[in-house]
Design a protein that fits this description.
mainly alpha, two-stranded parallel sheet, 68% helix, globular, disordered N terminus, binds heme C, electron transfer activity
């Protein structure tokens, strides 16, 4: 979390600030149509978070893991498109592996919002996807019946996802 906030602080001069209304967050400039898709995706992330907490309160760790992995994990947009195309899980994992390995996202910018974002924001997006993958992994490995320790681990991992949401929001806004 501290590291994330510091990352935000380091970028101040790259983006410039606008504090007319006391809002000194860095501005990410994107085309208007990208902005509305970006904010829509953000609202979906809040829905995803809600679905995860609902699944956890029902003791349904598999569904919580599924949502984090499929809707918040690295390449979730690619995954969604490929699922709609009826591709197999193997094909999807192979494609995501290729994307992960590609040295430069400029060669493989993917389908997600990252391709419109400056490097620093994309890096924070990557931390977000990693936190989601970590959560999914913890949630998948819960014992039956779940122990108190399991619940603690799961909620710690969930709060690590939320930390990244908060860190990004306190550093950036879109225009
Ligand atoms: C990589 C950076 C980043 C991450 C990670 C991130 N967001 Fe955002 N989010 C933004 C930015 C930038 C905005 C626009 C804020 C603004 O312009 O005031 C935003 C806006 C939002 C909005 C407002 C949408 C609207 O219609 O105005 C919601 C809701 C939201 N985010 C939820 C989340 C949730 C929940 C998470 C984590 C699960 C999350 N975000 C993670 C960058 C991020």
């Amino acid at each position: 979390m501290k590291r994330l906030l510091m990352m935000g602080a380091c970028c101040l001069f790259v983006f410039g600030t606008s504090s007319a209304y006391g809002d000194d967050r860095n501005v990410i400039l994107v085309p208007q149509e990208v902005k509305s898709i970006f904010l829509e995706e953000m609202r979906t992330h809040l829905d995803n978070l809600n679905e995860i907490t609902q699944a956890l309160s029902a003791g349904d760790f598999k569904t919580a893991a599924y949502i984090a992995e499929n809707k918040m994990g690295f390449g979730h947009s690619v995954r969604e498109v490929m699922q709609q195309q009826g591709r197999t899980d193997e094909e999807i994992e192979e494609m995501l592996m290729k994307l992960r390995e590609s040295k430069s996202r400029i060669d493989h910018p993917g389908r997600g919002m990252g391709r419109f974002m400056p490097d620093e924001v994309r890096e924070m997006g990557r931390v977000f996807h990693d936190a989601a993958a970590h959560f999914a992994n913890i949630a998948k490995n819960v014992a039956t019946p779940p122990t108190t320790d399991d619940y603690q681990r799961v909620f710690t991992a969930l709060s690590e996802i939320i930390d990244v949401c908060s860190a990004c929001h306190s550093s950036y806004r879109v225009e």
